Amino acid sequence: MKSRCKVLIICVVLALAAGTLLFFLTQKNLTLVLVEQESRHVLKTRTISEGDQLSFHWIHSFEHIPWIEEYTIQAEQSFMLNTIKVAGFGAGIPENKGIVTVRDGMVVMSSLEQEFDKISWIHSQTALVSITVQGNTFIQGIDIPHHTPVELYLKGTRTLWPR
């Protein structure tokens, strides 16, 4: 009876160790997903990683100046807004957000640390120039129909590591 109990304890310990090892050998894959808000129709996806840099490149609709928003992809499937760069101030442009400096002719608002679960907007082909991930184009403004309500979010899954 004692040997059966020992075998059972050893089996339980081995199962827990294997489960723990498997958990740590898995990697959370993140997918960037752009959908139409109402129909949930997927417009574009891309596999990304925690720590990747996502940037929105806009032309301000009224001031007609460049506006760049820089985000970091978070493991908990969120976007961390770090920096906003604008070529000046005007309608709708925040003031005194974070640390404000001027670099290369742009007003730079850094250290914002504002987290978003999703980013939603009514698309404008004339306002959005592009969205980039790690400096590579995810979409260009002309890729999405004008005035389409869209949403960008992250979806995570676990897979065995390495890929």
Describe this structure in words.
This protein has 163 residues and is mostly beta strands. The protein has one domain (29-160). Helix content is 14%, strand content 52%. The strands form 2 sheets. Strands 3, 4, 5, 6, 7, 8, 10 and 11 form an 8-stranded antiparallel β-sheet that branches. It has a 4-stranded antiparallel β-sheet with strand order 2-1-12-9. The longest helix is centred in the first third of the chain and has 23 residues, at 2-24. The N and C termini lie far apart (45 Å). The model has no long low-confidence stretch (mean pLDDT 85).
How do you describe this structure in short?
The protein is built from one helix and twelve strands. It is mostly beta strands and 163 residues long. It has one domain.
Mean pLDDT: 85
Global outline: elongated
Number of domains: 1
Low-confidence stretches: none
In sequence order, what are the helices and strands, one letter per element? HEEEEEEEEEEEE
Largest sheet: 8 strands, antiparallel
Q: How many beta-strand segments?
A: 12
Helix content: 10-25%
Query: Kindly, what is the distance between the CA atoms of the first and last residues, rounded to a whole number of angstroms?
Result: 45 Å
List the total number of helices: 1
Strand content: over 45%
Structural class: mainly beta
How is the topology of this model organized?
Layout lengths: L1 H23 L1 E11 L5 E7 L4 E7 L6 E9 L3 E9 L12 E5 L2 E5 L3 E3 L1 E5 L5 E6 L2 E5 L8 E12 L3
Antiparallel strand pairs: 1-2, 1-12, 3-4, 3-10, 4-5, 5-7, 5-8, 6-7, 9-12, 10-11
